[in-house]
Amino acid sequence: MSAAEQPPGFTPTGTIAQAGDRRRVVFATVVGTTVEWYDFFIYASAAGLVFGELFFAPAGPGVGTLLSFLTVGISFLFRPFGAFLAGHLGDKYGRRLVLMLTLILMGVATALIGLLPTYAAIGVAAPILLILLRVVQGISAGGEWGGAVLMAVEHAPRSKRGLFGASPQIGVPLGLLLASGTMALMAVIAPGDAFLEWGWRIPFLLSVVLILIGYYVRRSVEESPVFVEIADRKEQTRMPIIQLFRKHLLLVLIAALVFAGNNAVGYMTTGGYIQNYATNPEGPIGLERGPVLWAVAGSAVTWLLSTWFAGWLSDRIGRRTTYLIGWVLQLGGVFALFPLVNTGEVGLLFLGLAVLTIGLGFTYGPQAALYSELFPASIRFSGVSISYAIGAILGGAFAPSIATALVDATGTTMSVTWYLAGMTLLGLVASLLLRDRSGIPLGPDHEAEQAKSPIYGLSKA
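RE: above sequence
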């Protein structure tokens, strides 16, 4: 494309020139992903607090909680379908379209969960409907992340991709903060039985307002400049997913393992496990629901800050080095978590979560830039979305259920610590297998360079 043919505001490197446009992209990405993950995490929080009793009561307290956590994991099995669908649409029709669709899909499913009758009202139909709506959430989450990441990174200046890419990443701790804070507030407004009867529903119904805000903000953002250039040249890949698996299957799997190492540990809070473990009246701690939720909300702030800082740092020392630091910090956080939680002191519980989230931020903040720099432009949406979805299945999908089963089988949380440590080491090994490609050109003019293998031991040609 000649300079005369370029859309207004584009630079030769394929980024938006105006700082105001860049800020609008970052703001829209943060708002959209925060709303999306609020919806996703409000379910996980409710699963740890009330769904076992409301939707799986006949199974008994222990099994009911396990079944409730399994519904959290089931949605992950449908993330690849959402990723496949979104990747195909995103590589053919653009990133922006997919982001609008996923936002609406997630919001509708979340609001409907807030209106669901319980098992006591309609019997077995209640958990069936709950699972179906969770599946819809999973499909939406599978398609959301890739679009948000590419809108941020492909708009970014080359030297600030890590920082820009951190904007969709902080939507996760912001979503957790909003979800936990809203649940904690409702625990105050509707304590005890009132929370079970109607208090838990309000955060789900609030999703309607948040979705309208997110939709309005996202409408104001232009399409990714990389995709615009591909579309102008009419070079969209006809079957991007087939091309991805034919040429980059091993890369997809390694990238998925990088995320799995982070995601399994992160789902101790985002999946509702710590909330349930700390508040279970029949468990070893038996804390009040409200203080635990506020502690989780506070840890979301430390997670947000470390995620943002790690994205910024990766622009200076590289994605790979930032990750390696992060895995060491995360491993330390894993071994500190349960000794602090098991004290039964809310302050120390918060400290354990805060220490853990520092490592989580370092292994999450650079991910958007890392993934975007791994895959060629023509199949990038499919590559980042599917790698992310597979990593979510291998990591966080059933982490709360595995943790619950391990404690039931061994009687100690040390078994969970070793499980999380193993997942952290798996992520470390996967990171060591990848070359650092920080700053590689992302536009379609450099497709040949992008297609070279970033995996150590494979030919770069």
